[in-house]
Write a structure and sequence with these properties.
Elements (H helix, E strand, L loop, with lengths): L1 H11 L19 E5 L2 E3 L2 E4 L8 E9 L7 E6 L2 E6 L2 E6 L4 E3 L5 E8 L7 E9 L5 E10 L1
């Protein structure tokens, strides 16, 4: 399962660019930082499931260092939602697979959890490649209560 998750990360992360910014040190300021608007406790983001609903949603934000708009960021998680329909097992990731950054260098995806995920710790990954082939990855963990 973990091998499949890692494979998904590389499938979803598409080669994108990071333009160098000229500083005195002449270094590009490329990085990725995943955040959410959730309460953070001991490094874990806490998502309270809304009882009575079919699904509970939360935004996950990815900030890239140099603030260029329209850069494609890949997202995945280590947990899927699976259901059987017409005798076929269908599974989907809990986060949207990709998003584009805005003019401030921030991309947003949506994490959608179901009641069966209460008590789970979900790891969300985000990443991209710069023009030089350097990969930037980050992750955060969400506990569903």
């Amino acid at each position: 399962m973990l091998k499949n998750i890692i494979s998904y990360i590389f499938i979803y992360i598409i080669l994108v660019g990071c333009e160098p910014i000229t500083y005195e040190e002449d270094e590009a300021e490329c990085f990725i930082n995943l955040t959410s608007d959730l309460y953070v406790e001991n490094g874990y983001h806490i998502l309270d499931y809304i009882e009575g609903g079919n699904q509970t949603f939360e935004y996950i934000h990815a900030e890239i260092g140099y603030g260029k708009d329209y850069e494609l960021i890949g997202f995945t998680s280590n947990v899927e939602y699976c259901f059987e329909w017409n005798g076929t097992l269908n599974c989907s990731n809990l986060v949207n697979g990709s998003g584009y950054t805005d003019e401030y260098g921030i991309a947003t995806t949506i994490l959608g959890v179901y009641q069966e995920h209460i008590g789970d710790t979900i790891k969300v990954y985000g990443g991209y490649y710069d023009w030089y082939g350097t990969q930037y990855l980050d992750s955060l963990e969400v506990i569903v209560k």
